Amino acid sequence: MQIAGNLLIGQKAVRGTNGLIRGLDAATGTALEPAFGGATRADLDAACELARSAFDIYREAPLEARARFLESIAQNILDLGDSLIERCVVESGLPRARVEGERGRTVGQLRLFAAVVRDGRFLGVRIDPAQPERKPLPRPDLRLRHIALGPVAVFGASNFPLAFSVVGGDTASALAAGCPVIVKAHSAHPGTSELVGLATQKAVRDCGMPEGTFSLLFDSGLEIGQALVGDRRIKAVGFTGSRAGGMALVNVAATRCEPIPVFAEMSSINPVLLFPTALKRRAEAIGEAFAGALVLGAGQFCTNPGLVLAVDGPDLDRFVAAASAALSATPAATMLTPGIRKAYEAAVGRAAQHAGVSVLVHGGEATTQHQGQAVLFSTTADAFRRHPELHEEIFGASSLVVRCPDMESMRDIVESLEGQLTTALHIDDADHADARTFLPVLERRAGRILANGFGTGVEVGHAMVHGGPYPATSDSRSTSVGSLAIHRFLRPVCYQDMPETLLPVELHQENPLELHRLIDGQPETRT
Ligand code: NAP
């Protein structure tokens, strides 16, 4: 498969004529070949029409066929071999080992969703059999299953060019649910996007899925992405990126004639809470581990530890000394795009100038204009409370230590925070009583609460939550990582007193698919 700079509209490769998008070598800023043509309104219309016409066929494809389709995408991605890894490394500036690991995660989550589809439990089948003799009124026969929402628009993330991009978690979960997907590729990695798009297009063909099951569009501005969300044939949106971008799309979706859900994962500073006994016993070890988590991927993780809260004193000083020593020995790292690096430098510059903030340490100096230098700041609890701008995410290897006078003020600060993807507690046994008083507040603030670790490194599994209250996401009721993500793209339909011949097979009395079902609220006994 060759990178040609094309849009993928169903099974066609189409040259976009609406402006140009260029991939860049992240380390040098050099423009890469080929240039990509942006989609026109006509291209968008063609992709949406194909997705619309594919929907009723794709969503009723047998579960086994849908599962094999997901596995086929995974295999085709692996078959791209080194060409995918090399292009992704150049476009993202991420180290090869990280990109290879991310490919493993991408393939792994496609296979996980294949298993979820085969299992069939996601259909959530419930049957309340008729009770014709019930007094005073007979009960009707009620049968519920979940169906796919409709074609989904996915906006890939810049910082996970594989696992959160063209066939990342959003696309995998939408396809698993039975939704055709139209991806608006992230302009930071167009070559990577086209390669993965070609692998997916081939799987559609090989598995006999309807043509409009998958399309990939490039946009040279913001127009086509917004028009995609505004298109009446799109029924839901998955997005990972900035708060401004996510909210722009939420607003487009909300003002349509038919508003649709947008699952946007946006901004989080992932507070790290250091409790007194843990700090006393392990300040140096926690400080070093914190520095490692902060600089991972040049700090360009949505789960990056951007805020540290602890009671001021000599133990916190030991933590800061250890983190500072580790950070100052860490070389600067290439950032994803010139735009992201510029935004990082600007935000770090503003923090450094802030009257209530001091710089604790800088990481190794940048040796190219494409690198970001790590930085650790500190402030007081009082200044942090009075300056909401200090609560904002700085996307990159920057973090802020807040020195609190006591545990009570630390709890007040947690209460004042916006919604978060993660929060991490560093605790020893003697801290449990204190930690317990924080948990109700943390549950209200975050999607995932960890003990003695950092939020970076999101396990893809059944019990993972990668979500949280606004602005971590635009809808806190779900997750974008893990098998639960499939439920974002499903809705329940109930069939009342419907003759069996008209019922979908999942709801037939004999349970021919051997699904896990609830009968009158109880698990069905399977013989
Ligand atoms: P971004 O600028 O929000 O872009 C994400 C995607 O949305 C891109 O495809 C972009 O198009 C599109 N887009 C942005 N604004 C739009 C608008 N107003 N209308 C229509 N489409 C729009 O995000 P980014 O480039 O990844 O920038 C990095 C920022 O994202 C960071 O500062 C960080 O705060 C945030 N981020 C958060 C997470 C998280 O998980 N919470 C993860 C990664 C990044 P183009 O491709 O044309 O730019």
In short:
It is built from 14 helices and 23 strands. By secondary structure, the chain is of the alpha/beta class.
Describe this protein's structure.
- By secondary structure, the protein is of the alpha/beta class.
- The protein folds into 3 domains: 7-17 and 32-266 and 478-488, Aldehyde Dehydrogenase, Chain A, domain 1; 271-451, 3-Layer(aba) Sandwich (Aldehyde Dehydrogenase, Chain A, domain 2), CATH 3.40.309; 496-523, no CATH class.
- The chain is 37% helix and 18% strand.
- The protein contains 14 helices and 23 strands.
- The protein has helices at 41-58, 63-79, 82-92, 96-119, 169-177, 190-206, 223-230, 243-254, 276-295, 314-328, 338-353, 381-386, 407-416, 432-445; strands spanning 7-9, 12-14, 20-21, 36-37, 126-128, 142-148, 152-155, 181-184, 214-217, 236-240, 262-265, 271-274, 307-311, 333-334, 357-362, 371-372, 375-380, 398-404, 420-426, 446-451, 490-496, 518-519, 522-523.
- A 7-stranded mixed β-sheet has the order 15-17-18-13-12-19-20, sandwiched between helices. It has a 5-stranded mixed β-sheet with strand order 21-6-5-22-23, with no helix packed on it.
- The radius of gyration is 25 Å and the shape is globular.
- The two termini are 48 Å apart.
- The model has no long low-confidence stretch (mean pLDDT 97).
- NADP nicotinamide-adenine-dinucleotide phosphate binds next to α7, α8 and α11.
